[in-house]
Structure formats: structure tokens, C-alpha cells
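Assemble and predict.
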Amino acid sequence: MHFDLNFPVTASGSTSQQKKNKNKQPQQSSQTAFTPAQIKGIEARLDLLEHLGYTVIAFNQSVNKKIDPKTHVNILDGLLQQLRARPGTVFLKRLTIVLDNDSEKGFGLTNANASLVEPYDVIALLPTTPATFSLACLTHSLPSPLTAHIVALPLTLPRLPFQLKHTLIRTALKNGAVFEINYAGAIGGDSDASLSTFGVSDTGASGKRNWWAAAREVVRVTKGKGIIVSGGVASEADYRGPKDIVNLLTLLDLAQNLAHDASVAAPKSLILRAQARKTYRAVLSEPR
Amino acid sequence: MVRFKNRWLLVEFVDTSTVDASAEKGSLSTRPLDGRLIYNALRDSVVTNFGDTGWGAVGMSLNVKYFSPLTNLCIIRVARDQHRIAWGAVTLLTNIHDVRVIPRVIHVSGTIKHTQLSAIAHNREVIARFRTKLKNTALHHDSYDDYLARSTREIEALHD
């Protein structure tokens, strides 16, 4: 059972939405359709992932700064309908919110927006400032219909923008959140297009160096528990098999059994926990 | 007894040109690889990612023992104590001679025997996959049979 919990998906013709032109509003629903060429590309990637041995794949939609109920479009529902069904592979839907200075006041993960967030199976936050990092770790990892399960870290930025404080990480881990390491940063190459438009990543040789430094730091502070590793890969040639990724993690000073857990056991328990979000305060069944 | 222990890595290079339709660089079928090219690419990868110290640790014992162009299967021998560095360098390889590949380590073992068994099994799997693509039944004799027999002999002829 191998997991790739970060399969980046961008909407066709997404970015600039003219808000001033009121005539354009009805076009929002048509943007969720993917062109056949895009579907072919995604199917080819899924074939490759299957060949490499991944069985659970989560499609990731990234949103910048905050979820706005007026403009947010769930592209993944449309995508899942257009893909052919594969026996033996499970598809999940994931939403990543990139947090930065503007999101400090609140970024839409509130009860009012719960209906927007509900169709997604997993929610992730990508903080880029110390304040948003502590927000993500402390308030948003508590069990509720709005918890964020994954705290993804921008590992290729020149200097990790915040210090990974032991206390924050420990609280997040105790509440059950996990920290994510995207292995695409180690291989280099083009980064996730949506992330670079949000200004979160850096590519080339310096990106790789930062990745090694930051990933090592994450491993050190979490002591190896509560880490998941996932793709985040933009171009197909950067995919690697799960065993190879486990080996890369051992090069980060992570013990072999913990590296194996990060790749297999931690994502599994994360997904189970994500299902608990749909229940009331993480209670999965009635006590007998 | 201080025996010199090795690790044998069975690596498959997955061709990305069939996946990524927009590849500008050539696919593996146009630029055939061989053992020497792989060794050079591996050496460059170790030096870029792990520096001269990494190459010093791995270089003396690194050996590309077998490569099959049809199935893109490669057998590499490294010393046991540093095999993780070599394995990491294999994973971080992005292209060999301008051809983008995805290296996938299928099997790691301490003796040559199990590597041979695993390599032969993998070859058979790949040939079976080719055959289903061509929609041939298993009884239909084609050039792949030859290839299987030859490669099995070559693999079994490997020695330490």
C-alpha cells in the first residue's frame, strides 16, 4: 500500500478571473471541465504511478491565501468523473491553502465555509510566515469539521521562513496533524506550477540544497514521527518509486523503520483521521 | 572473518517519453544506453549530490555488471556499507546523456543468486507486457523468446 498524497492539479484557464465584468460570472461552472488533452496527460501520469507501485493517490488543488466562497471552484469533482475507474487504486481529493501574510486575519476555514470544504477528503495548509505557522499548528489541528490534517512546508525556499519550534510541532503532533515533505524538491526540475505562481518555491541547484537542509530540519524536530512524504511533482520524469523515496529519507538521518513508516503507516492513519473530520469532533462510532 | 560484503541493486530505467508526450529530448529507443554511459551518469550523480567524499566512499566498489537495452534493466554492484549513498545517487539521476529517465530500484540483495532470479523474473514480466501490447498469445513464438533465452544465459553467467 503506497501513497502519493500530492498529485497537483490545476484548473484549465484558471488564474485571472475578471471580477469587474459581471457578464463573465456564468462562465465559472464551465471552467471545471478538463480538455481531453489534459485528461490524457493525467491518465498517462496515473499509469506511471501505477507502474511504480502507488495505490492511493490524492489529487491536490491549491488555493492562494484563502478560500473565498464567491470564487472558489471545486475542480476535482469534475476531474474525478472524467477519469476512468481503476481497480486497485483509490483516488482522494485534497485542498491545499497557501497561507501568507494576508491570511493572518483569517482565511476562510470557518464554520460558514464548511460546505465549501466538505467535499474534500484531506485539507492541508502551507504556511509561509511564523504567525501562520503557529496558527496552522495550534488552532487548526484540533478535531472539528474544519481541521487541517497536513501541514505542508515550503522546503525549497532560500531560508525556511520560520523557525520550527519544538513546542508547536509537539502540539500539532499530539493533535494528530502530520508534516509533509514533498520529494519533488530533492530531484529538482520544474516545481509545481501553482506553487511557483504563489511564490513559494525555488528551483534549480539552490532549490535542491534548501530542500536537503529544510527536510533534515523537519526530521530532526519531529524526531521522525508524524511525517508523511508525498510527490508534489510537476513533470512526470520526477516521479520515483516508493522504495527509492524511503531510501532518500534514510539519507536525511531518519532511521530505516521510521522512514518506512513515513511512507506507508503515517499516510494510512492520516487518511483514517481525515475521515473522522466528517464526524462530530473525531468520534467515529457510538460507544457501546 | 572479515568478508567484503556487497549489495546488488536491480534497477529499471522507466522510459518517460511514452508518458510525457511533450518531451523534446529523445526517447530511449533513439539513443541506446549501455553500461558505460550508465556508469558515467552514476558517477556524475554521486559527485554532484554527495561530493568527492561520496565518490570516494562508493567509487572503488561501484560496478555496472549488466545492462539490457530491450528491457532497460541494469544490475549494479556496490559495497554494503555505502550502498545507501549509491542507491540515493541512482534515485536522484534525472537523465543519462540528455535522455530523461526514471530510475526504479526493483530489488536489493546481498548475493548474486537472488539478483539473478529477480532479474530473470522481471525480464519475463516485461516481455509478457510487450506481448499483451502486441496481443500475442503466450504460445506464439516470436523474437522475444530468443531474447529471453539469451538474456537468461547472460544473467546466469554473471559472477562476483
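Chain B has four helices and five strands.
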